[in-house]
Amino acid sequence: MTLQIEPRVVFDWFYQINQIPRESGNEKAVSDFLVHFAKERQLDVEQDELWNVIIRKPASSGYEEAETVIIQGHMDMVCVKTEDSQHDFSQDPIEMQVDGNILRANGTTLGADNGIAVAMQLALLDGDYPHPALEILITTNEETTMAGAGAIQSRQLKGTQLLNIDGEEEGVFFTSCAGGTTISSSFALEKEVALGAGLCIRIDGLKGGHSGMEIHQGRANANILLFRILSAIQKKTDLRIASLTGGTRDNVIPSQALAGIWVEDEELARHAVEEIIQVLKKEFLTADPGLSVFISPIPLDVVYTKDLTERLITFFTLLPNGVQVMSQDISGLVQTSLNNAILFEIDDHLVLQTSLRSSMDSQLEELANQLKVLAELCGGSSSRKHDYPGWNFEPISPLRDRCLAVYKDVYDKPATYTAVHAGLECGFLKQSLPDCDMISYGPNIYDVHSTKEYLEIDSVARVWEFTKSLLASMR
């Protein structure tokens, strides 16, 4: 069985890839599939302890003297599903649906980020197209730590030009990217016996999306909205938080959040919620029209203390979120942002994980310090992990010039190049390959990292044709 859509040489491989579990951290099966693919075709292949795969294909006739080209993508995907989905990402294939020119999944992320790149890589290896010597690099853990790209060493690759096919906007070539880090704000849980039954407040229906590529679109953050609701209740009646959870990944804008609470006066609390819901719906009428808030009774045994409840509400009220600074050099580009992504309890602590991004190191450090100071002022602590480097713009880039020229030749219209407010593996790879000329591009993919993710089919066809033409021009 296949998807029966063109270009078949690409989508047949995408279908096969989506039959294999490949959540970040669970890539061994798909990595082994890639190794088997290479060995079946008698191609040189290398697999490391992080399950990164490098497949080497000799140059076509007439291209033996051309410089080796690295084509890079990542095999892992963000795994998010709707609340009612029974999908098991550890074993179930991604169920895909074709709707005209749109390919999406049924209640889950599609995995076009970045499975469509892997499909193109396999199609190049499996086909007979003119090209220089190729090094196909397929990395792991891109969606979490970028540890796969970070482990690549210069001795493994000979290429002097690198095509990263992890872009999401056709006709736009990325030539630099933001760096970032993850901050964990932690609060020791202080609990006491509940004074009675409680309420569950659940936020749902938000768009979510990629916390870098879509942070500028003004979408609601479920964790932030949850505390706006709790703050509104606190102004009307005495309140104790009993439990908190929200978000799924630090690079995904949270679309769901939930709080268990005790309130002294339920009628006043419900009235406060009704009032703030109307305010929030007006605020996000355009950016997030699906916002829904549900209230239901729940039994309670214990709750957070009054002091901890008040400190948490203060912390979230003062917490920065979303776009902080826009670039003064590139119109429309976010320079610095943060996403308050995942809220959870662990080891008697409440933890908020926040993803920070910036193309300016000093602003990233200042924002990290702000979160640290704020957490400490509210009786918590702060820790940092998963730093990843940015990728600086190169004023002189023959590869960029070639890409723009080939695109114009193929489609008779100009392409553009810009920076991207997201972490790309080019940042890590540039550290290992400082003299390698790099560029990033890809087909149109929308609402990545969310259950609404979809791929434009004809865009894949155009990017595939462009990639073949680009390689053919490198004689």
UniProtKB/TrEMBL annotation:
**Which UniProt keywords are present, listed alphabetically?**
Cobalt, Hydrolase, Metal-binding, Metalloprotease, Protease, Zinc
Q: What PANTHER family does its record include?
A: CYTOSOL NON-SPECIFIC DIPEPTIDASE (PTHR43501)
* One of the record's GO cellular component terms: cytosol
- This one is known as Cytosol non-specific dipeptidase
The EC number(s) attached to this protein equal 3.4.13.18
Q: Which residues form the Peptidase M20 dimerisation domain?
A: 205-283
- The top EC class, named as a word, is hydrolase
Give the molecular function GO annotations.
Answer: metal ion binding; metallodipeptidase activity
DNA damage found in the keyword field: no
Q: Does the keyword Amino-acid biosynthesis apply?
A: no
**Might you name a Gene Ontology BP term for this protein?**
proteolysis
Q: Which residues cross the membrane?
A: none
The species this protein was found in: Streptococcus minor
